[in-house]
Amino acid sequence: MKKFLIIILLLFGVNGCAINVPESQANPIEEKEFVASDEELVAHFIDVGQGDANFIELPNGDTMLIDAGIASSGDDITKYIEDLGYTDIDYVIATHPHADHIGGMAEVIESFDIGTVYMPKAVSTSKTYENLLETIAFKDLMINTGKAGVEVLREDDLVILMLAPVQDSYANLNNYSIVLKITYGNISFLYTGDAEEESLEEITGDLTADVLKVGHHGSDTSTTDDFLGQVRPKYAVISVGDKNSYSHPSKSTISKLEKYTDNIYRTDLNGTVIIRSDGINVDVKTER
Ligand SMILES: [Zn+2]
Fold it and tell me: Which H or E run contains 213?
């Protein structure tokens, strides 16, 4: 246990890479005409059953992994990314330390050259979390604190910005979830981890997004009318296990989403969902 605490302190000790900007300055792409290029953003919502695993091929050639499912998914996620031809992942983001989000992450981190790791400053005493921290330490990586206002990347037509967590502590671990918005040209993607109402209503940044990775596997505690009214999604993806014991996604979440879009994809029904964009258009392909 003592060793574990030391690892946490060491890993979170240095935080130099994260660029914090006041949220008032944290605007998405500057207003200007965007000309679509051949460079695409490809967002993979990998079917990992009841859990989350999102891999993103950014238009600048960088790659990003947001969450890595349960422990037994580590293998599949690793193979999936290898099959795309990658040997490194530039950004690894663990939205929050629950086993259905970080379970397979240690294995993925072991298997690739890793750039920057972001995690919220939440503490868990679970074996899964401890194992992940040990793997990160073993690979001589640092953890950058993920929180509202952190700008992961800013280029001409590509901005990646964290909108939550806003506070330093929450009673519910889900509310530590890093909420991340990727804007490429005119198109934006919003990833909300398992953030619930308490966290979502604190967000002051611009939540508008074309593609919403629906929070908390479609539970009714994460998708409020007020939140959706700000996001106004044109596409929604729910990462959820077939016949899961939580009855996710909830019927009320689906009907709330249907007020905004008929383009609702679910990994339990559609398998892995791949959404690509040239910054103007959006194209969706599903495994089934
Ligand atoms: Zn979850």
Answer: strand 211-213
56 occurs within a structural domain = yes
Ligand 1 geometric centre to CA of 280 (Å): 31
- State the pTM of this model: 0.91
**Cβ-contact 141, 117 below 8 angstroms:** yes
159: containing domain? 39-281
Q: Separation of 100 CA from ligand 1 center, angstroms?
A: 5
Ligand 1 centre to CA of 178 (Å) is: 12
Q: Would you say 194 and 50 are in contact if contact means Cβ atoms under 8 Å apart?
A: no
CA 217–ligand 1 middle distance (angstroms): 6
**Domains in the chain, number:** 1
CA of 121 to the centre of ligand 1 (A): 17
CATH code for the domain of 74: 3.60.15.10
Residues 47, 38: Cα–Cα separation, whole Å:
27
Residue-by-residue pLDDT tens, the chain, 288 positions: 455 555 555 566 444 444 444 444 455 565 668 887 789 999 999 999 999 999 999 999 999 999 999 999 999 999 999 999 999 999 999 999 999 999 999 999 999 999 999 999 998 999 999 999 999 999 999 999 999 999 999 999 999 999 999 999 999 999 999 999 999 999 999 999 999 999 999 999 999 999 999 999 999 999 999 999 999 999 999 999 998 988 899 999 999 999 999 999 999 999 999 999 999 999 999 999
Taking every pair of C-alpha atoms in the chain, what is the biggest distance, in angstroms?
55
| Cα-to-centroid distance, 248 and ligand 1 (Å) | 10
C-alpha 51 – ligand 1 centre gap (Å): 5
- Ligand 1 centroid to 99 CA: how many Å? 8
Is residue 152 situated within a structural domain? yes
Q: Which two tokens stand for residue 65?
A: 């992994």
**Domain assignment of residue 31, yes or no:** no
